[in-house]
Write a structure and sequence with these properties.
This is DUF2971 domain-containing protein. By secondary structure, the protein is of the alpha+beta class. It is about 25% helix and about 25% strand.
């Protein structure tokens, strides 16, 4: 269930458009299972996920001199925090197609922050928080640590193109052993507003996606991205 955390920033407009770019297999898994995958925070490619900037780490080390468990907690906590990443943008992103899809295939889910919040209410086992990621210089800027989620809401400036918001959950209290991540219940029809097919995909691929979605009992609007439409000169 989505829970508001006043310490976590999020665009106020519920109609703010968000995207998830993914391959067909992950999309079908979402539709068939009715569950959204959330990755364990220390399993992302970016090794800095859930860690601190240098100024903050120096501060934490001083605190930990008399309380070593303080630092150990932050190291182990990454294994209990799971994340689903979304891209905030009014329009499609060419860069996100390039990074998150392969072989001219894949698709993008278009939703809104309001839809995401509502869709998460189907999950009753874990509290879900949504926040926007801050992009900073890890050598110079400070990451606050007065909220356990703050380390997971900061990334290096080199990732700024992601313009990311995150669904975050801490499953420490559930005493779960998480490998790559876990799946949470979501209302698929509420979550998905529209589907866009890869701009370089062939027509057979779009027809395949439409047919699969229909056979699974969904009727989302499905369009082919127009990022590769014919030039007019």
């Amino acid at each position: 269930m989505y829970v508001n955390n006043p310490n976590i920033k999020l665009p106020e407009n519920p109609d703010t458009i968000i995207w998830k770019y993914l391959d067909l297999s992950k999309f079908l898994d979402l539709l068939i299972s009715g569950k959204m995958f959330m990755s364990r925070s220390d399993k992302f490619e970016d090794q800095y996920e859930g860690t601190f900037s240098e100024p903050t780490f120096e501060e934490i080390k001083k605190i930990s001199e008399n309380n070593p468990k303080f630092l150990d907690y932050y190291k182990s906590h990454r294994e209990n925090v799971v994340i689903s990443s979304w891209h905030t943008n009014e329009y499609e992103s060419f860069a996100m197609w390039q990074v998150f899809t392969k072989n001219n295939e894949g698709l993008a889910i278009q939703s809104t922050i309001g839809r995401l919040k509502e869709a998460l209410h189907l999950e009753r086992n874990f509290e879900q928080f949504i926040g926007e990621v801050n992009y900073i210089d890890y050598k110079k800027e400070h990451i606050p640590f007065d909220d356990v989620f703050f380390p997971f809401l900061f990334k290096r400036k080199s990732f700024q193109y992601e313009n990311e918001i995150r669904v975050i959950s801490d499953v420490t209290a559930q005493n779960l052993t998480i490998n790559e991540g876990l799946k949470i219940n979501v209302d698929i029809n509420t979550l998905i507003e529209r589907i866009y097919i890869h701009p370089k995909s062939e027509n057979w691929y779009k027809k395949l996606v439409i047919e699969l979605v229909s056979k699974l009992g969904f009727d989302f609007t499905i369009e082919k991205s127009d990022l590769e439409s014919d030039i007019l000169i």
